[in-house]
Write a structure and sequence with these properties.
The chain has about 280 residues and is α/β, with parallel strands linked by helices. Helices cover about 40% and strands about 15% of the residues. It folds into 2 domains: about 210 residues, no CATH class; about 35 residues.
């Protein structure tokens, strides 16, 4: 068997954005949000499975899945999910998740009637360093707090959860919770050729991603998105390397101007003797 990558938009949308997979969606959300018996999500309704971005994106429109949720306490709220494989994600998820607030109709200034909104962002790179996410956990929650005493902002109706897949490092035999299974599935599903016993609770999710069940048109769309994603990653990686190289050369120039010999600069920066000589002439 061959499974498609759930981190590619069309696969993500099919897995989490269609009514036939409501059971999977509820299980995933309850796992990521760490909900327990008594406040589990019981009912969901898809508000929209794909929103046309008002901002032009490389490779076409992005997929944002908006879900109206009702939990066991009879509390209503909206969850917006999106998956992203590129950087500069935090401002974007804040922009799009806020949209779920202002799209709600408010009558006569009754802002108390607004449903809380939770943004869930799944990223395939390290979004936060250890200083920003001290726990190092792959799932982190961010809320609005007072800058000094850390008290929560009263009546806040906007929270964010981030899933950083590279920070999930458990091996197959180490999986214990349903959240572990979902994170392993998201990270490695497209590398698997069968469903391991440890992931059997997610058999239905694997069935959705099984290439054999996809028609030619849908698979062609997936391949196109996969190629576009690869192109974006190559462009971004090249830009990062260019930026790193520029930074190294700037450091080398400063060392030279401070009197360090070319030989020592070469040893400390890894630049070639010839490149350092070129920098000396600038």
């Amino acid at each position: 068997m061959k499974f498609v990558d759930p981190k590619v938009d069309s696969a993500f949308k099919l897995l989490f954005g269609v009514p036939s997979n409501k059971k999977l969606v509820k299980d995933f959300l309850n796992s990521v949000l760490s909900l327990y018996d008594g406040n589990l999500i019981e009912e969901i309704e898809f508000i929209s499975s794909e929103i046309v971005s008002p901002v032009q994106e490389f490779g076409g429109n992005k997929v944002f899945i908006d879900i109206h949720c009702l939990d066991q306490r009879k509390h209503n709220y909206i969850i917006e999910m999106q998956v992203e494989n590129q950087h500069n994600f935090v401002p974007r998820i804040m922009y799009y998740t806020s949209r779920a607030l202002w799209l709600q109709k408010v009558k006569r200034g009754d802002y108390q009637s607004l449903l809380p909104v939770i943004g869930i962002g799944i990223v395939n790179y390290k979004l936060f360093n250890n200083q920003e996410n001290v726990s190092g956990n792959p799932v982190s929650k961010y809320v609005f707090k007072h800058e000094v005493d850390n008290t929560l902002l009263p009546d806040s109706i906007l929270d964010f959860y981030f899933v950083e897949l590279p920070k999930f490092r458990k091996k197959l035999e180490e999986l214990q919770t349903q959240l572990d299974r979902w994170l392993y599935f998201l990270k490695y599903a497209d590398d698997l050729t069968f469903v391991p016993d440890q992931l059997s609770p997610l058999q239905d999710a694997f069935d959705v991603l099984n290439e054999v069940t996809w028609d030619v048109q849908r698979l062609a769309q997936y391949r196109q998105e996969e190629e576009q994603l690869g192109a974006k990653q190559r462009i971004e990686e090249g830009a990062r390397k260019d930026g790193m190289q520029e930074g190294i050369e700037l450091i080398a120039c400063n060392l030279l101007h401070n009197g360090m010999s070319i030989e020592l600069v070469a040893q400390n920066t890894g630049l070639s003797y010839e490149r350092i000589q070129e920098l000396c002439k600038k």
